[in-house]
Structures are given as C-alpha cells and as structure tokens.
Amino acid sequence: MNLIPQNKKILIIEDEFITASALNLLLGGMGFEIVGVEDTGEGAIKATEQLKPDIVLMDIVLNGEMNGITAATHIREQFNIPVIYLTGQADDSTIFQAIESEPFGYIIKPFEEKNLKTSIMMALYKHELDQKLMESERRYRAIAELAQDSIIIFDRDYSIAYLNSYAIQFFKKERIGKSKIELSDIFPQELVDQVQRSLDSILSEGRYQRITLQGKLDSDEFWLDTIFVPILSRTNNITQIIALSRDITIQVLFDKEMEKQGIIQIEKNMEQFQILNDEIRNPLAVIMSIISLHDDEESRIVLEQIDHINNLVSRLDHGWVESEKVRSFFIKHYGYGKLCQKDEHNM
C-alpha cells in the first residue's frame, strides 16, 4: 500500500463556500488531487459517476432536497467508493443515521489538519483492504461453484453459512429463502445426527475429521466421503467448519457387487470339489479292492498309482475345507450368505 497521497482523487461535497475553498487548498497542499466540489446530494452522485474519485468528503447538511447521508448511501451502493462525513452535526440521532450508511469516517467541524489527513489515509487503506478481501472472496466462491464436490461451511451454532451449487443439486434442494439455514434444511434426517457429532468433535478437539456419510434421497442410497476441517482465526480459535464431500456411491456399489460375485464363485468351486471327490474317490476304492486280490508286480505298480491319485484327491479335499473357511469369512463380515443362496436359486 502506497501511503503517499499523490494521485489520490478527492471529491468535496460541502454547501459552505468558505469551508469548501479551505478544504480545496488544504488537501491540495497535502498532495491530493481535488477533482470537484459540489453543494447538493444530487450533484454529489452525478459527479461521483463522472469523475470517479478515490474518496468523497461529504457534509451531511446540503443544499437541495437530498441530504449527505442519502447521497452517501447511493454512492456506496452504486459506485463502491468510500465516504467520510465532514460535518458540524454531532447529535446522537444524526450519528446513528450516518452509521447506517456505513461511512469510512466521521469528522466533526472544526477539524484539525492532521486529523483530516489521517482519517483520509486510513479510509483509503481500509477500502483497499476491503477490495482485496472482496476479490479474494469472489475468486474462492467461483472456484467453489465450479467444484464437482459438495462444499458446505458451518457456523459454530451448526447453522449453514454457505453451500455451493453442487451441494444444492446433490441434496435436491431449491433456493432456500431463509436467513439461517439449519442442518435439517439440507441433510436427510438420518444424516443430521452424524453431521452434528462430527461438528461437536471438531469444536471440542480442534482437529479435522474424515468420515463416510451414508443416507437416502428419494429411496436411493448414497455414500459420501466427507472431510470436516476447522477454519481458525489468527488467535487459533475455530470460527467456522468447512466440509468437502465426494460422492462415492458408484464405487461402493461396485465393490459390493465384486464381493458378492466373489462369494458366488467360491460356492461354485466348493460344489466342483465335492463332485470331483465323489466321481474319483469312489471308483478308486472299487479298483483298489479288485487289484488287492492279485499279488504280483503289475498289481503293486497299479496300487502305487492309485495311491498317488488318492493323495491328489486328498489335496482337493483340503482345498474344499479352506474355501469353506473363506466363505464363512465373507458371510461373517459382509453378510452375503442369504444373498448368494438367493442368486443360486435364480441361476
């Protein structure tokens, strides 16, 4: 910030000619550029639009029908230019009305040169900071609106200060005409308690939290991978909490389907093991009984081969047992036993 007043343009709105002339001379000597002098509220608004000053010095009592407070309100709302009141009015009623117009300063006549310059420089500095803050807010808001994830900002009382367009669309909410948005205005009822517990945890522990939110919208189940992050002030106090939620419903449903198909395949393999056992071991037993009646070299060779085949079948039996263990694990942890049985009947 350049604190040297050169090239900063000032518009003076003053109905007393002597005071206006003194201000013109005094401010010019400080290095400011005086772009105009007006004595009515209507003239102040028109001059502001045409001359585009950096700041306006406004008397409250002016010639014409419009007073300085009304003119200042128009200038702030239409042109976003800072206004400092320079007036002899110091009663509570006038000051209260002036405050409502959000001025950048209030100087009581007669004024001191040093106080005047300080007030102008402080107003210019504050306005510049406000502009940077507004630009930053617009920039981040634009990024949030373009995001393909839900972004929600919570106040400390759990009300919702902001939610982006994606969140409004995801939760199927139209424009909410309320100044204070509650959790229940956005989230399905089954999620309200989950969200509030996460907010409670962050406010008490001060650390981020990552959870999966699971709920239903119009009978359609959904899953959201959600991160809650505290927003800290300069003194490390939590002022708000921001939540970023990514829709992982397709991924969750895909994983569930893969787990289900894995169980079905395991059960098919177990059936094949059982069939193989019956179709091989039973004939082998008959062959062994017949060969055992002969005591010659060829019979002993055949019995050795039968014993080798029997060992292979025993290994298949062991594989069947291990598959049963895997099946039991899936049923215990994923609850697919009934589902698989149902699918088998449908095949």
TrEMBL record:
Q: Which PROSITE patterns match?
A: RESPONSE_REGULATORY
Its domain of life reads Archaea
Name positions with the PTM 4-aspartylphosphate.
Answer: D59
- SMART domains, A to Z: PAS (SM00091), REC (SM00448)
Task: Output one GO BP term.
Answer: phosphorelay signal transduction system
Decide whether keyword Iron is in the record: no
Q: Which UniProt keywords apply?
A: Phosphoprotein
CDD domains on file: PAS (cd00130), REC_DC-like (cd17534)
Q: Which residues form the Response regulatory domain?
A: 9-124
Residues in coiled coil: none
Task: Tell me the PANTHER family matching this sequence.
Answer: RESPONSE REGULATOR RECEIVER, TWO-COMPONENT RESPONSE REGULATOR
- Please report the name of this protein according to its UniProt entry: Response regulatory domain-containing protein
Task: Give the species this sequence originates from.
Answer: Methanospirillum lacunae
